[in-house]
Amino acid sequence: MENTEQLQVAILVSPGMGHLIPNLLLGNRLVTHHNVRATILLVTTPTSPPSESHLLSPDLNIIEIPPVDISGLVNPETKVVTLLAIMMREARPGIRSAISSMNPRPEVLIVDLFGTESFQIADEFHMLKYVYITCTAWFFASTAYCGNVLDKEVEGQYVDQKEPLRIPGCKPVRPEDCVDPMLDRNNQQYREYVRMGIEYTFADGALLNTWEDLEATSLEALRNDEILRSVARVPVYPIGPLKRPVDPAGSQTEIIEWLDMQARESVLYVSFGSGGTLSAEQITELAWGLELSQQRFVWVVRPPTGRGVDGSFFQPGKTGSDGTPDYLPDGFLSRTGSVGYLVQMWAPQVEILSHPAVGGFLSHCGWNSTLESMDSGVPMIAWPLYAEQRLNATLLTEELAVAVRPEALPTKKVVRREEIEKLARRLMQYREGKGMRDRVRQLQCSGERAVSKGGSSYNSMCQFVEDCRRKLKS
Ligand code: UDP
Fold first, then answer.
1. Atom of ligand 1 nearest to the CA of 18
2. What is the Cα–Cα distance from 332 to 232, expressed in whole angstroms?
3. Which residues lie in coiled coils (predicted)?
4. Whose alpha carbon is nearest atom 24 of ligand 1?
5. Given this model, what pLDDT does residue 227 score?
6. H helix runs in 132-238, sequence order
7. How would residue 253 be classed by pLDDT, with cut points 50, 70 and 90?
């Protein structure tokens, strides 16, 4: 096909690693498999994330939207959803001018979770507008339903409800599993969330980073449940799993050399995403739990949160005589050095998860991490912290049976060392863990099939491109 016939797409990306990665992957897929010309419009912040240049296809253009000064609009109490909403709102003049100077002008605007206020710009330029939900269909259904229905029907705080919240056709959402912005309806981030849930339904369609076999129930409901359809309205395109490929550079690190020396499926990888941190007390319990479990582990450690209360005397970078960071129990490294490996702050996660020595993942259940774990056939200990991670943890444990989790939410109650020891053993040693490994391998295969030529997600992406062309012609 001639270049001039290529569909021209702009993908608007909100700040943050967890957003950048799936959007780059979407752009790559569109340009490499679907004859689309795609430009990433990246709203930047003064702190740039670590380089992800290996994810960039040479055919994918990137335009950086300069950071906007929002200091007068936020304060230290401002919650993350509000912060991102404000950043994306204030970035609109930059987004508008970037689109207006593009030649050829894009015909389709895809925005991520936080970018729906830029649908207005799409309208100004007569572009089609799509939202890309970088996580689950269940999240999409519950957000649209919350914004359009629950917000009006439910009185009082969601977390005080006695019954799970009913989302037509989908698994109900337990009050304690509600996404962060639903936890306090008086906070501005709830209003932003409700607005997003309403705006999603004004899109021409929603791309979802999930696939048919993974979320059959929610996808069926979004397509065929009369009540949900009357609310969520838009056609859905499950196009996942889009997840990061292994970076050859990341495979040559010391940590991979260490993994090379470990037995197959013997190592528990512990990491809480790009931003997750634990309290000082929880870090101590986790360290003891890992040690007591006698499992091999790789742990991406970060200094504790809540410094004002419990960690103000910890100086990052200070270590004991055996190299143990001072926020871990004394002598931790001397005692665990032969079975454990600590990585400070950031690790090559995809390369670690795909290593044959890794047999389990203690994860905060960010959706990228979840997909990466599934793609490597690695079962999980679900340790949700923020955003929509409690929904993901529930999906993983109750629907898919590929994860174990602590009795109480780690954000509500410190998980004690004995429980962590038990969870690690259940996953890594017991038959239960083997069953989960078998199931996650089935998901690994079904995910691979879905994105391969002729697979459900591949076809769904073709359908999206075709629908765009058809709408543009009509
Ligand atoms: N990640 C990584 N190394 C780390 C921590 C995170 O490479 O030490 C990557 C991880 O592989 C994933 C992303 O950062 O692709 C985190 O996204 P996710 O959705 O899991 O969680 P978030 O950081 O958005 O909470």
1. 24
2. 51
3. none
4. 18
5. 98
6. 137-145, 151-153, 188-200, 216-224, 226-232
7. confident
Pocket test for ligand 1, best of 81, 209, 274 (most atoms within 8 A of CB): 274
Token pair, residue 369, equals 């991490």
How far does CA 126 lie from the centroid of its chain? 31
- The ligand 1 site (C-beta within 6 Å) comprises 17-18, 21, 244, 271, 273-275, 300, 346-347, 349-350, 366-369, 372
Q: How many whole angstroms from 349 Cα to the centroid of ligand 1? A: 7
Does the structure show a pLDDT above 60 at 333? yes
Nearest alpha-carbon partner for 164 in 150, 152, 184 = 150
Active site residues: 19, 112
Q: Which of 54-58, 131-135, 209-213 has the lowest mean pLDDT?
A: 54-58
C-alpha distance from residue 276 to each of 174, 305, 318, 411, 415 (Å)? 23, 9, 21, 11, 16
Distance in angstroms (rounded) separating the CA atoms of residues 329 and 171? 41
CA distance 29 to 455: 14
Q: What's the CA-to-centroid distance between 18 and ligand 1, angstroms? A: 6
Cβ within 8 Å of residue 214, ≥6 positions away: 240, 241, 400, 443, 446, 447
Query: Which DSSP state fits 455?
Result: S
Residue from 452, 396, 397, 390 nearest 165 by CA: 390
pLDDT at 464 over 70: yes
Nearest by Cα to 244 from 52, 111, 33: 52
Count of alpha carbons within 13 angstroms of residue 139, beta-carbon side: 28
Residue among 215, 145, 222, 225 nearest 179 (CA): 145
Two structure tokens written together for 326: 């001072």
Whose tokens are 């001072």? That residue is 326
Edge-first strand order for the sheet with 340-344 is 340-344, 296-301, 267-271, 358-363, 380-382, 403-404
Query: What Rg, from alpha-carbon coordinates, does the chain have?
Result: 22
Provide the whole-model pTM.
Answer: 0.94
The C-alpha atoms of residue 360 and residue 427 are separated, in whole angstroms, by 7
Phi, psi angle pair for 381, to nearest 5°:
-105, 115
Phi and psi, residue 117, nearest 5°:
-65, -15
> Where do the domains of the chain lie, and which CATH numbers do they carry?
7-244+453-473 (3.40.50.2000), 248-448 (3.40.50.2000)
Which two three-digit tokens encode residue 348? 């090559």
For residues 93 and 327, give the distance between their C-alpha atoms in angstroms, rounded to a whole number: 44
* 3: confidence class by pLDDT, cuts 50, 70, 90: very low
Give Dmax over CA atoms of the chain in angstroms: 71
- Token code pair at residue 167: 């989302």
